Request: fold
Amino acid sequence: MLLSATHWVWTGFGDSEGSFKPPSVILFQGCGQGNGAGPPIWISDTATLWARGIRATGGAIKPKKSFWWLIDFDWDSRIGTWKFRGKKVVAPDFELQIQGLSGATKSLRRLEPDDSERTLGVMLAPLENLKAHERQLLAKAKNCAEQLWPNLLHKYDVLPLTRSTIMKKLEYPMALTTSDAQQWADIMSLVLARGRCMLQFPSGSSVLSGSWTPTPICVSSV
Reply:
């Protein structure tokens, strides 16, 4: 086995005179120095351990809802910055597999660095994709606005529903995004305009209007 083998280091100056091997029956952790498959092996082992840990507590990972990114960079000397490397360049054939609810091992979806996926209400990607996040928020606001119909609820329910449910859905991801005031105004106007129509308030009312000014949010860390 590789873990119990005796290792020599091969360098540009020749093979090392000394060697190393496990000093006892307790083997080294990992896959050995200089092993090109080291990172994928560590990633696979971590994913397997995570899935088994969840199963031990009565849960399971659903492969269809799981995904992953492999993050690596190239230095672009023309513009003096690092750039993400895509799937075609970095280990295109590598698959990350995990044990699902049935016990069978399934391959997880691998995404490009700019591919966004929904995680706890926020569209995230290593290479920030603002357009995808804005589309997701617009779709959420449109869905909320469609719930504000006279045949679905009484007009006196509009304000409580807007404040306690709809606004919370949109406020939650606000601190995690870099959308500007105009983008948020476009998103919020879908809900606020429909709410104003439901309440039949004058256009100049300050309770619900088609325009919206974001409130500054202070985020502190401990």
Notes: Residues 99 and 105 are 4 Å apart (CA to CA). The chain is about 30% helix and 15% strand. The mean pLDDT is 76. Residues 119-199 form one domain.
